[in-house]
Amino acid sequence: MTPAEPAQKLEELDRRNAELSLLLELGQEVVSALDVTQVLQAGAHTAARSLRCSCAYVFLPNQSGTALRVAAREEPDPEVDAQVGAELPLEQEWLTGLSFKTQQVQVSTDNRTDPRVAPEITRRFGCKATLAVPLLSHGRTLGVLSLFERTGRIFDPLDVRLATHAANLISSALENAQLYQDLRRSYAELERTQKELIDRERLAALGALSASIAHEVRNPLGVIFNSVGSLRRLLKPSGDVTLLLDIIGEEADRLNRMVGDLLDYSRPVRPSLEPVPLGPLLEGALAAARDQIGAPAEAVKVDIRIAAGAATVRADARLLRQALINLFLNAHQAMPRGGQLEVRATHRAQDGGAVAEVKIRDSGPGIPPEAREKIFQPFFTTKAMGTGLGLAVVKRIVEGHGGTIVLASSAAGAEFHLQLPIDG
Question: Around 216, how many Cα atoms within 13 Å sit in the side-chain half-sphere?
């Protein structure tokens, strides 16, 4: 044994101990994480440290299975053309794709001369050597852990063993995280289904009650309206008599609106969806609301702007018009002495699809902080003469279209955001 051999063996032993410690750290990090993104990022980070390589990437298949996307990376160079979310086709020549398809470890000591590596991959990652290890679970390939080296160093058999152990830890943690997410998704779906069943039963009972109330109340209301009209014609009232008749008429009208709102809220929302031009719908609903408000509406300046991408939505024009009228009525009622009403419709991507986002903002006093969480609840109102059903009806109609409505934060006034599916 030469004098240098003990020192070399000691150095090799120290290296193995250090790397095994880092693998232990990796196991602790990824096993304790229940979020898929955290698992993958922890895996890339610790794998790069444990194998002392330039960078580490975790690739997962895209939904169609035709490409691998960058799911996490430990990359010191932000300029590298392989950001998280980037996709590389499986048909392209590269070791990571080959590892995914063959379920085997792939090693290249020099990417520039290796026929299995396309020049585009070498350029994109700026790497000279590659170590790709499949993430396997019960015979399935979940993804690939890829390690890239930009110096002259090559990956040796010990690196391969350590990377394989790291990949096994990431695979187990990834599967656990996915199972946990599936479980959370199942619980959320169960909770949503239970809530829908309870809401349906409640609405069915409310519908039966509303129909009975409408029948019993609207007949007397008809008599009151006719009687008030007859008294005006017969008596030609003035002074206090006119005031009293006006009060009777206003209160009877409020009661009639309350019955109508109650019927609207309890009625099942079954929209008949078809392409609806958003511009004419918004303008028609606004005109109807201003007609109901009357002369005070003239003091409110209106500005409507619709982006080209949001010109047409899939909706039931009659139901959506009713929801918009309610929102425009609320906005005008919040500005009895005039103000500014802004309506904006824009296009945005969401969950792989597209939606039209309609923003309605008024310059009124806004919604009190203590009321913001309750404004969509039935029978909750901040108005002295309100029924508390207007916004509840709006919410049911919008959600019946597969959309959403929220009260957004605004420095002044109230601002509502509606999201509706875009046609086509």
Answer: 6
